[in-house]
Amino acid sequence: MFLSSYENKIDKKGRVSVPAAFRSYLSSLGYNGFIAYPSFNHQALEACAQDRIEKLSNTIDTLNPFEEKRDYFATSVLSESTNLQFDSEGRVLIPNKLLDHAKIKNSIIFVGLGKTFQIWEPKLFDRFKISARKKAFKNRSSLKWENKSKKEEV
Description:
There is one protein chain. This protein has a single domain (about 5-125), classed as 3-Layer(aba) Sandwich (Chemotaxis protein chec). It contains 6 helices and 8 strands; from the N terminus they run ββαββααββαββαα. The protein has helices at about 20-30, 50-60, 70-80, 95-100, 120-140, 150-154, and strands spanning about 5-10, 15, 35-40, 45-50, 80-85, 90-95, 105-110, 115-120. The strands form 2 sheets. A 6-stranded antiparallel sheet has the order 1-7-8-4-3-5. A hairpin with a 4-residue loop joins strand 7 (about 105-110) and strand 8.
């Protein structure tokens, strides 16, 4: 899984080192890179393994091929996605169009979200994190643990 948050600087050539834990997880899945695309919800980038973007593509394909909704999702996600491959030192070069969307200049924060991760400009993420924590606290009762013992008793 993608866990924790890691901040790294962008070098003079525009490359950034991807956290070793993220590279290791992707490698365990058989990948030497990841897919990134502009977030719908934030000034950030969404990032995932190839199989996750394929799952998303399959979901988009379940929509009626003549419906505008299908085109909107395909255009907004798939046409904006970029396959970023690690170099020999575990770095990637994120295209300017993605950096511009996330307002990233010098530093990047990689934010683990379980099966996916996000890439943020650190100050924007700090502000978002404060808001997210307040909203998570307010909505904490909506998270339910599955109680297997009750199911087993039935």
